[in-house]
């Protein structure tokens, strides 16, 4: 039996990337989108707008479309190779696995793009909007002050929703 040479190692690396390529693209997109959204909130540039649209949904859209196109290219290449009639069973299996993992990655990629697209992602921004509404609707100052104090804390918000009625009952 011959020892594997450099050509075999290169083929193994290429095959490994093909099999995991869709998942790696998804992971890269997922990390980029959520880190960007977190930085946008932390560095106060989430409110920046381009052509009337917030920066986080714009960047999320472009990143997700780029990742979806890259994943679609992997799927198309695997389908083209799978249709070739001169493939051995091992290569056909690898192409099937590439199709399956890339297809799953594409579905998950699109699914996980929705939260950053539908929300601003910044809780302080949402709380400040709620405070403006509370102040304009005649909510007592004590409840508004309690919400403002809660919004200014750097701790995570409680898991149960806080209502104005609950705040008024504690006063």
Note the main attributes of this structure:
elongated, mainly alpha, single chain, 2 domains, two-stranded antiparallel ribbon, 2% strand, 171 residues
Q: Which sequence of strands runs across the widest sheet?
A: 1-2
Total strands: 2
Oligomer: single chain
- Helical segment count: 7
Order of helices and strands: HEEHHHHHH
- Label the structural class: mainly alpha
The residue fraction in helices comes out at over 70%
Number of domains: 2
| Strand content range | under 5%
Describe, in plain words, how this protein is organized in 3D.
- The chain is mostly helical and 171 residues long.
- It has 2 domains: 6-118; 123-170, no CATH class.
- 74% of the residues lie in helices and 2% in strands.
- It contains 7 helices and 2 strands.
- It has helices at residues 6-42, 55-83, 89-111, 114-118, 123-136, 141-152, 164-170, and strands at residues 49-50, 53-54.
- It has a two-stranded antiparallel ribbon.
- The longest helix has 37 residues, at 6-42.
- It starts with 5 loop residues before the first helix and ends with a helix.
- 17% of the residues are buried.
Strand and helix layout:
Layout: H1 6-42, E1 49-50, E2 53-54, H2 55-83, H3 89-111, H4 114-118, H5 123-136, H6 141-152, H7 164-170
Antiparallel strand pairs: 1-2
Helix pairs in contact: 1-2, 1-3, 2-3, 5-6
Quick take:
By secondary structure, the protein is mostly helical. It is 74% helix and 2% strand.
């Amino acid at each position: 039996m011959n020892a594997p040479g450099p050509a075999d190692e290169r083929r193994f690396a290429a095959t490994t990337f093909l099999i995991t390529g869709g998942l790696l693209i998804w992971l890269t997109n997922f990390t980029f989108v959520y880190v960007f959204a977190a930085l946008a909130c932390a560095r106060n540039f989430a409110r920046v707008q381009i052509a009337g649209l917030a920066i986080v949904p714009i960047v999320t859209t472009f990143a997700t479309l780029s990742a979806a196109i890259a994943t679609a290219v992997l799927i198309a290449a695997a389908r083209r190779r799978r249709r070739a009639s001169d493939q051995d069973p091992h290569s056909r299996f690898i192409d099937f696995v590439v199709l399956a993992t890339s297809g799953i990655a594409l579905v998950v990629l699109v699914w996980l793009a929705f939260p950053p697209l539908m929300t601003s992602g910044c809780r302080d921004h949402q709380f400040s909007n709620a405070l403006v509404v509370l102040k304009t609707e005649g909510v007592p100052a004590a409840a508004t002050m309690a919400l403002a104090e809660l919004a200014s804390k750097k701790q995570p918000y409680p898991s149960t929703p806080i209502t104005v009625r609950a705040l008024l009952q504690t006063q």
